[in-house]
Structure formats: C-alpha cells, structure tokens
Amino acid sequence: MSISLGSNTLQDAGLLILRVSLGILILFHGMDKIVHGIGPIQGMVTGMGLPGWLAYGVYLGEVLGPALLVTGFHARIGAGLITINMVFAILLAHTGDLLSLSPHGGWRLELQGMYLFTALALVCLGPGRFSLNQR
Fold it and tell me: Smaller CB count within 10 Å for the chain: N or C?
C-alpha cells in the first residue's frame, strides 16, 4: 500500500517551508531592532537625505511582514513588506557591494539577494493552502 501526495500538496508544503523559513530568518533581524533600537538605520536614512521617520519602516519589513508570512495571514502583503525592506537595506547599507564578489567567488550580497528574491517569489506565488486565509 503506497501513500501518494498530490503535486498540489507538495507545492503547498514547499510554499509553507519557504514562508516559514524566510519569516523566521527575517524576524531575527526584527527582534534585534526591537531590543537595540533603530538608531543606526535612522542615521543611514537621514544620511541619504531622507526623513528619519522612514527608518521605522524596518519594523514593518522585519517584524510585521515576517509575522504575516509565518502565519500565512495576508502572506503576500507580508512578503511585499519584506521585499521593500530588502530593497531599502541593499540601497542604504550595501550599495558598494552590489556588483562585488566575495573572496570565495560568490556574490557579496547573496544573503540579501536570497531574502529579496525569495520574498518576491512569495509575492507572486502566494502562501499556498497551509495558511490562515488559504489563498
């Protein structure tokens, strides 16, 4: 007797794994901002001539967005918040490394790129069936 998982079940399981893993990994960054504050980010934001209050957006992209992803409640919005957060992170803190390689030959921004493009893929794909609003 064999148990067969349908391709939809496997796809939904894959989306669950992507959502939860990205959400938890980004949430660690958000918890750091909650504990230590956003002073350094405000400095980067104002250093680029933008208003300092924009730095509070990090809480949307690193706390609210991941929470939405992990639960699957409006996960596309959560993934969108993370996508925007990663674009800002790359522009504010990593612009000099955008076209650089690491000493081992990888893209210097591979972690930031993985976060950005995984979030963007989840914006396109949605949360899958294993989510609070199952869309």
Answer: N
Nearest to 64 by CA among 29, 103, 106: 29
In angstroms, the CA 37 to CA 92 distance is 17
Angstrom distance (rounded) from CA 45 to CA 87: 13
- What would the pLDDT profile of 82-102 be if each residue is shown by its tens digit? 999 999 999 999 988 999 999
Please check whether residue 88 is in contact with residue 57, taking contact to mean a CB–CB distance below 8 angstroms.
Answer: yes
For residue 101, the cross-strand partners are 107
Report the predicted TM-score, pTM, of the whole model to 2 decimal places: 0.91
Q: Which of 109, 92, 86, 98 is nearest to 43 (CA)?
A: 92
Query: How crowded is residue 122: how many other Cβ atoms within 10 Å of its Cβ?
Result: 24
